[in-house]
Design a protein that fits this description.
InterPro entries: Slr1339
Protein name: ATPase
Distance between the termini: 150 Å
Pfam families: Slr1339 (PF26643)
Order of helices and strands: HHHHHH
Number of helices: 6
Shape: rod-shaped
Structural class: mainly alpha
Helix content: over 70%
Keywords: Coiled coil
Number of strands: 0
Length: 181
């Protein structure tokens, strides 16, 4: 038995000198030290713990601090009245604005087309008036007994007037052929 006691003594010496190697050994060492200090000074330590506990309890009773939190519940509605309703309304407003803008642009384009058509009609009218003046001059110079005069007489029978026939003839023939130019 002497050898067992000797081995226990050596192991005890190693563990005390080298310090704990594992967390379990460290915890056991702390617990052992606390137990030793409690047994060495038990009345003083107990008095300190009791006084601290009493102090904390008295402060808690005196102040009775309750946190003030003003929380208002937020109602989330899944229906169209909630956030979706606001988005729907916003999208609806944007859609109406876009459609109104598109209609305004279409109206503007239509007005521009009408204005262009009026300009074109005025230009045609002006060209027709100029052509009518040239046709009147051409009719004054035309000899009805010439080959051209005879041909034109037959041509003019299909028109409401000789002026209309002359305008059609001048539009159809190049100016070099008519002696102009």
């Amino acid at each position: 038995m002497d050898s067992i006691e000797k081995l226990l003594g050596e192991i005890k010496a190693e563990t005390q000198n080298s310090g704990p190697k594992f967390p379990e050994q460290m915890e056991a060492n702390r617990t052992h030290k606390a137990a030793n200090s409690l047994s060495a000074n038990p009345p003083q330590l107990m008095y300190n713990l009791d006084s601290l506990l009493e102090k904390v309890e008295s402060e808690a009773k005196e102040h009775k601090v309750q946190p003030f939190v003003n929380v208002q519940p937020i109602e989330l509605e899944v229906t169209s009245k909630g956030l979706g309703g606001h988005l729907d309304q916003l999208f609806g407003d944007l859609k109406q604005e876009f459609e109104a803008q598109e209609q305004a642009e279409q109206l503007k384009r239509e007005q521009e087309r009408q204005e262009e058509a009026k300009k074109l009609e005025r230009l045609k009218q002006k060209q027709r008036e100029e052509l009518a003046k040239r046709a009147q001059e051409w009719l004054k110079k035309l000899d009805p007994y010439s080959d051209e005069g005879f041909w034109f007489g037959q041509f003019a029978e299909h028109y409401s007037s000789k002026l209309e026939a002359a305008i059609a003839y001048l539009e159809a023939t190049p100016s070099e052929k008519r002696g102009e130019g």
